[in-house]
Design a protein that fits this description.
four-stranded antiparallel sheet, PH-domain like, Protein Transport Mog1p, Chain A, 23 strands
């Protein structure tokens, strides 16, 4: 579903002065947000839009006298009346913005409500599309898993019924048919490997480790060392992976630790400062050219700045530099146990989630980037990454 560009549907400039009027504030309503000066809030976040203090005002009446002395004429008139009131935009049970003294406040409220309703309907429609797609992907994944389980079960039953002699490759521990000369998995030459035979019986698998004959050269120390190293590496990798299939990444020089999916690619080179490290999702298919990713950045700030000031400066920069920027969510949150702020926005044809915190004069931020239609699909696994993020003392 293609998102409509942001457009202004109502605006009013607040001025002061009589002869040289000066604009002191600007009120705007777009199809996505409500603005009061430079501050704004998303329409979808509002609870309601209500009109308060509505009343009618009119210009003063007048009386005129004219004509000649002998036939005077008297006339009177009154200017038209108009409805004036306050339009309040309710967020979490209280007015977030209030437009005061607005002409035709009911019309303005109806316009804003209609835009809010359209936005929410479109968002829910997109959520349904994403939910259906996610359920279909899960269903296909479950079917594939069941098919693999059936194949594995059939293979096990066939193996336990038949006595089969196999040769085990000492390089990768893959079982091969007895007559095989090369390993089906790694391509190693089996007759030079000195691999023993694995005989499968009804009672299970018993490995008969055949030793090389006296005419064969003993296993080289290099080969043995390589195998031990390989086993150690496999053991270390197994310890790094938790029950959810995540690996742990640590940057001790920066005091950062985060968990990431074991099938994602860790990117450490080619990143521009202040980005330190990134993680890319695997390709879904050969034509998948936009890979979802998470990157971590770190800035040092010289001047004293609050988190709110940093966030507002960042929003201003995004507006100026990102094509068709639209802010979806701007709320306080927590990151690594510290007060933080989260922004969700669209721009350049993508959707972003930006979470930032300031700790001991350093700005830590994580950015998740995805195609808008895949954002909610990847959000649960990315949220686990954000939740695992830790800020530790920097190693000396």
């Amino acid at each position: 579903m293609t998102e409509a560009p942001e457009q202004v549907i109502w605006a009013l400039d607040i001025t002061k002065g009589v002869f040289r009027k000066k604009i002191v504030n600007t009120l705007r309503i777009t199809n996505y947000r409500v603005f009061l000066g430079s501050s704004y809030i998303g329409l979808s976040l509002l609870d309601d839009i209500v009109v308060m203090n509505q009343h009618r005002v009119s210009d003063s009446s007048y009386t005129s006298v004219g004509g000649s002395r002998g036939s005077p004429r008297v006339g009177s008139g009154r200017s038209r009346s108009k409805s004036v009131g306050d339009v309040a935009f309710i967020y979490q049970g209280a007015p977030y913005f209030t437009f005061i003294g607005i002409e035709d406040p009911q019309g303005v409220a109806r316009l804003a409500k209609a835009a809010r309703k359209t936005l929410i309907v479109n968002m829910k429609a997109q959520e349904k599309i994403d939910k259906v797609r996610l359920e279909e992907e899960r269903r296909l994944e479950q079917l594939q898993q069941k098919q693999e389980e059936r194949i594995m079960s059939k293979t096990i039953r066939t193996t336990t019924r038949t006595k089969t002699a196999t040769i085990t490759c000492r390089r990768c521990n893959t079982s091969n048919a007895e007559a095989s000369k090369y390993c089906n998995n790694c391509g190693f030459r089996l007759d030079e490997d000195g691999g023993g035979k694995d005989v499968v019986t009804n009672e299970g698998i018993s490995i008969l480790n055949q030793k090389p004959s006296s005419t064969e050269a003993p296993t080289s120390p290099v080969s043995t060392t390589s195998k031990i190293s390989q086993n150690l590496d496999q053991g270390a990798r197994k310890q790094d992976i938790d029950n959810n299939g995540f690996l742990t990444c640590e940057l001790p020089d920066y005091g950062i630790r985060i968990n990431y999916p074991s099938n994602w690619i860790k990117v450490e080179e080619g990143l521009k400062a202040p980005m330190l490290i990134g993680f890319k999702s695997p390709m879904e298919n050969p034509s998948d050219t936009v890979l979802e990713n998470v990157v971590i950045g770190l800035n040092s700030i010289q001047n004293i700045i609050t988190l709110e000031q940093f966030v507002q400066a960042n929003i201003n920069g995004l507006k100026a530099n990102i094509h068709e920027f639209s802010l979806i969510e701007s709320i306080p949150t927590r990151l690594a146990g510290h007060e933080a702020h989260k922004l969700v926005y669209n721009g350049n044809g993508k959707r972003f989630m930006f979470v930032v915190t300031i700790v001991r004069g350093k700005v830590y931020h994580i950015i998740f980037t995805a195609e808008p239609t895949k954002y909610d699909v990847y959000l649960p696994i990315v949220q686990k990454m954000f939740d695992s993020f830790q800020i530790m003392p920097i190693s000396k």
